[in-house]
Amino acid sequence: MQKKDTKNIKLLYVEDDDIARENGVEYLENYFDEIYEASDALSALKIYEKQKPHIIITDIQMPKLNGLEFVKRIRQKDKQTQVIILSAFSTKEYLFEAIELQLVKYLTKPICEEELKKALEICLESLKTSDSNIIKLDENTTFDSFNQTLFKDSEIVKLRKKELDLLSLLLKNRNRFVTYEEIENFVWYDSGMSKDALKTLIKNLKTKIPKDLITNLSGTGYKIELG
Which helix (H) or strand (E) holds 93? Predict the structure, then answer.
């Protein structure tokens, strides 16, 4: 596993122990450019909603909300994000619950770097080979969610940053309406979103993807529905 293998991959690392988290991030920086960190699960949920990471590494024993409850909340609407659980415990109760949450790996502390690296390689392979990696928008248009690339008639369609963010968000949550708040948090995470700015962005994006693919529900948000 090298940095070229993790291009465009976002990783969220959740650990309440400051020293363990610092050491973990230092190790992960050898392989990932986009790393987000949180010291508790509630902060992690906010980061998850804004950044939509591809991989999450989380401790179980944390204040406010434990790691398994954190993953449960994510799994209610997201089955694709790869999750690795870290724990000082290996009880059957935790293991059974972990299996139900479709985890990539359950690693017991102290964490062996080689085991973590293998788990991350599994995550990357799953992301690459996932059936949902190449999303067919129509007969001539596809979106590669792993490499964040839109293709039309086998040619790459150039997307601006906000166009790419919005398309990724709508496709990751396809077949349900994504709220205005979710769009603002993800696409305009560093600034405020105006109605006019959103309308302009939608209009521009619609010129690059199949006609009528994006639908609007007034007062709620936007949706991409695929068969």
Answer: helix 92-100
